[in-house]
């Protein structure tokens, strides 16, 4: 019996065991399998391990997407999470080449995936508060939002949660150094039912402008002299 003789349900089940690349390669063999690959029901879950994967054509975004994860674990993440004014010209050029990849992808998710239930972002140093705000507005069923080591996430995201996260049950903002204790307390006060976790976030040194950094260094030298 040839695989193409199986019904649609069986083919979807077989495809569900394959990774994105394997699904795409199998879809290239015939029109029937391509139709299975393009079935939104095959794509309720998407996991990505680098921004480069977001630009491939081996997956489908659609209303069936319920769970999305973009977790980037790499030495490059350290460069992206460095304060802009501390980066050298090479680092700035490197970051500029992929700065909007994740944000643009998430805006696409806003438009195509209104039924999203959970989003996990780790090491996505260029994702902004505005991007998360748009996602909360366009995905009203979002129940879980986990942000880790996302340096541009600030109290504005926490405020957006209190305004537009009506369905949110779990919020993680771990190692997000520009989140403050005041912002966390606001979420706890206004959204008491949300399971909030902020490992190290409010205790980390937030971004500071060069002028502020210089003032701190001068104060430190003066203290040593005394």
TrEMBL record:
Cleavable signal peptide: none
Domain F-box, first and last residues per copy: 9-43
GO cellular component: a single term: cytoplasm
Keywords of this entry: Ubl conjugation pathway
CDD domains: F-box_FBXL22 (cd22129)
InterPro entries in the record: F-box-like_dom_sf, F-box_dom, F-box_LRR-repeat, Leu-rich_rpt_Cys-con_subtyp, LRR_dom_sf
Protein's UniProt name: FXL22 protein
């Amino acid at each position: 019996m040839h695989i193409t003789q199986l019904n649609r349900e069986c083919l979807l089940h077989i495809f569900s065991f394959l990774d994105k690349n394997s699904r795409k390669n199998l879809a290239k063999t015939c029109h029937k399998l391509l139709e299975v690959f393009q079935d939104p029901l095959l794509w309720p879950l998407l996991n990505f391990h680098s921004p480069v994967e977001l630009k491939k054509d081996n997956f489908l975004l659609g209303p069936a997407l319920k769970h999305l994860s973009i977790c980037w674990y790499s030495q490059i993440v350290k460069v992206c999470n460095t304060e802009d004014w501390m980066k050298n010209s090479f680092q700035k050029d490197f970051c500029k080449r992929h700065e909007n990849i994740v944000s643009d992808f998430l805006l696409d998710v806003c438009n195509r995936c209104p039924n999203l239930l959970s989003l996990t972002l780790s090491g996505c140093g260029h994702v902004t508060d505005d991007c998360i705000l748009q996602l909360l507005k366009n995905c009203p069923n979002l129940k879980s939002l986990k942000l880790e080591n996302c340096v541009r996430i600030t109290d504005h995201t926490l405020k957006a949660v209190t305004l537009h996260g009506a369905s949110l049950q779990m919020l993680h903002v771990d190692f997000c150094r520009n989140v403050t204790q005041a912002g966390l307390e606001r979420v706890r006060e206004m959204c008491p039912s949300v399971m909030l976790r902020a490992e190290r976030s409010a205790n980390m040194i937030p971004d500071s402008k060069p002028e502020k950094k210089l003032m701190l260094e001068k104060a430190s030298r003066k203290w040593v002299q005394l």
